[in-house]
Amino acid sequence: MYDTFYWPRFGRLLKKTLLERPMQMLGLPGAILLIIFLYYAIFHLPMHQWFEIQKVAFLFGLTGGGAILASFVFGYFSTNAQGSSYLTLPASHFEKWLCAILIAGVLYPGIFLIFFRVMDASFVGWFHDHLDGTRPDYKQLYDTVNIFRFDSIIARNSIMYFLNYAGAMLVGSLYFNKVSIIKVVLVIGVLFLSMYFINLLIAKILIGDVENAFPFDSIDIWVRKISAGSRVVHSETRSIDLPSGSVGIFDIIIRYFLPAALWIIAYIRLRDKEF
Amino acid sequence: MIDIRNLSFGYKKGRLLYENLSLSLESGSIYGLLGKNGAGKSTFLKALIGLLFPKGGKISINGFEPRKRTPSFLETIYFIPEEVNVPSLTIKRYLDLFSPFYPLFDENFFYKCLQVLEVKTQDKLSTLSFGQQKKFVIAFGLACNTKVLLLDEPTNGMDIPSKTQFRKLISSVFTKDRMLLISTHQIRDLDNLIDKIIIVDNGEVLLNTSITEVTDRLCFKTFHDLPADPSEILYSEESLEGISVVMRNMDQEDSKVNLEHLFNAVTERPAIAKEIFVN
C-alpha cells in the first residue's frame, strides 16, 4: 500500500505541485477567472444578449480554462532535467496521476463553478435591483435575465466538453513533450475534420444531396422542388437525425466512456512513460 | 547492490545500444563510468533510475526493479542529470517542497555543501548561472543521503576550484553502505576520487574493476625511449617528459593510475585489456 498511496506523501506532492510552479498552477486559473469576469462585465449590458454572454463565459471558462490547466499539470517534459526530476520524485504513479486529476478535474472546476455562480448572481441581482418597478414592462424585463442554471443542457454540454478536452490535454501532455497544448489542438482538429469528411462521404454515398454532415447525430440534406421543366422552384434543408437508440449510445460514449477512457489512459501513459 | 543480467537496450528496434550486458556493482564504492561521447553512459544511468526500460534482461537495485519507479525505491536513489533546470523558487522554498520526499535528508549537511560549493543566494534559484544551479542540485542530491547516487557528467559547467570542492565533497559523503556512480567523459575530474572503474564502448563493458586491481595488473610509466618489448605495451603517448606508456605490470611495480591513458589503452586494445583483467 505504501508504494501505491500514502496520505502524508500525497499531501506533500499536492503542495509541491501547486507551489513549485505558482504562475502556472495558481496564476493561470486566476487569470482565466479574471478574463471571464471582464468579458462578462463588459458585454453583459445589452439585455437581449445576456444569456449568450452567460453561455460563452461558462463554456470558455470551464472548458477552455480547464483544458489549458490540464495541459500544464503534467507539463514537466519540455526539458530533460524537469522530466527526470518529476518521474524520479519519490511518489507513486497513482499519486502523481491523482494529483493531476484533483487539480484539473476537481479543484479548478469547483472553484470555477463557485466563482461563476457568485459573479453571475451578483450581476443578475444588480440588474434586478436597478430595474424601475414602475415601468409597465417591469415583469417582462425582470424575467428576461435569470441566473444561469447549472442543470441546463448548455451547462451539461459544457461539462461534457470540459471532461473530454481536459482529458485529451492530460494524455497529450504525456505523449508530446514540447508545446503539447498546440500539438493536442492540432490532433483534435485533424480528428474532427477527418470524422466530418468521412461522415460526409458516407452520407453522400447513401443519400446524395447533403449539405452538412457534422458527426454524428444528424446530417442536413437539401430538399428541392422541381418543376415540370426540370427547374428548381424551391429548395430548403432538412435534418435527418440518428434513431433515438443510436443517439443514446453516442451520448453515453461522449459523456461518460470517452472522458473516462482519456483520464485513465493518462494514468497508464504516466506509468509507462520513458524519458 | 546493483545487479544487471543480460541487459539489452536500444532506442530503435534492431539497433541495440547494449546487448546482453551483465554487471554487478557493490555498495561501499565510488564507481567511475567512463566512455566516449555517445557511448551510452547517460542511457545506462537512465535505465538504472527507471527512466528508460530495458528491451531485455533484468536490473535489480537493492532488490528493487527500477522500471516500476516505486516510492520505496526512489527514496533510496538520487539521479543528477547532466542538464539541470531548477524551478523558480528560493533555496528555502525548494527545501520545503522537495526534501520531505527523502526520509534521510540532512538539512545541516545540505547547507554545509552549499557553503563549500560557494552557492549563495537569497533570490530565486532560476537566477543562478548554470554552474551554480548544477552545484545546488549536487548539494541537494548529496544531502538526500540515498543509498545510491547517480551523477551524469557532474563537473560539466563547473570552474576549476568548484571541481576540486566537488571531489572533496564526494569523498566526505562516502560511507560503506552507499554507492556512487559517476559518469563522465572528463576523465581527469575523477582522479583520486573513484575506487572502481567501468569503461563502456560500443555497447560493451570493456572494463569493470577496482583501481587497486588496475595498479596490480598494469603499470603507468614514462620512458625516454620505448622499451625493448613493445608487445607488453597497451598504449603509449608522447609528452614533454618522454613517452608515457601503459603496460602489463610484470614486476609488481607500484605506479599511479593515469585514468586518461587507461581509458585510451582499454578502448584501443579491448581484447588485450580483457585478457589481462579476466585472467
Unreliable segments of 5+ consecutive residues of chain B: none
- Report Rg of chain A: 24 Å
Number of helices of chain A: 9
Biggest sheet features of chain A? 3 strands, antiparallel
Mean pLDDT of chain B: 89
Give the strand tally of chain A: 3
The CATH class designation of the largest domain in chain B is: Alpha Beta
> If interface size is counted as residues with C-beta under 8 Å from the partner's C-beta, which chains form the largest one?
A-B, 26 and 29 residues
The CATH H-level superfamily of the largest domain in chain B is P-loop containing nucleotide triphosphate hydrolases
The helicity of chain A comes to 55-70%
CATH architectural category of the largest domain in chain B: 3-Layer(aba) Sandwich
Average of the residue pLDDT scores of chain A: 90
Low-confidence stretches of chain A: none
Describe the structure.
The complex is a heterodimer of chains A (about 280) and B (about 280). Chain A has a domain at about 5-180. Chain A has helices at about 5-20, 20-45, 50-75, 80-85, 95-130, 140-145, 155-175, 180-205, 245-270; strands at about 210, 220-225, 230-240. Chain A is mostly helical. In chain A, helix 2 runs parallel beside helix 5, helix 3 runs antiparallel to helix 5 and helix 5 crosses helix 9. The radius of gyration of chain A is 24 Å and the shape is flat. Chain B is of the alpha/beta class and about 280 residues long. Chain B folds into 2 domains: about 1-85 and about 145-200, 3-Layer(aba) Sandwich (Rossmann fold); about 210-279, no CATH class. Helices cover about 30% and strands about 30% of the residues of chain B. Chain B has helices at about 40-50, 70-75, 90-100, 105-115, 130-145, 160-175, 210-215, 260-270, 270-279, and strands at about 1-10, 20-25, 30-35, 55-60, 75-80, 150, 180-185, 195-200, 205-210, 220-225, 235-240, 240-250. In chain B, the strands form 3 sheets. In chain B, strands 5-6-7-3-8-9 form a 6-stranded mixed β-sheet, sandwiched between helices. Chain B has a 3-stranded antiparallel β-sheet with strand order 2-1-4, with no helix packed on it. A 3-stranded antiparallel β-sheet of chain B has the order 10-12-11. In chain B, helix 4 runs antiparallel to helix 5 and helix 8 packs across helix 9 (about 270-279). Chain B is globular, with a radius of gyration of 20 Å. The two termini of chain B are about 25 Å apart. The chains are: A mainly alpha (about 280), B alpha/beta (about 280).
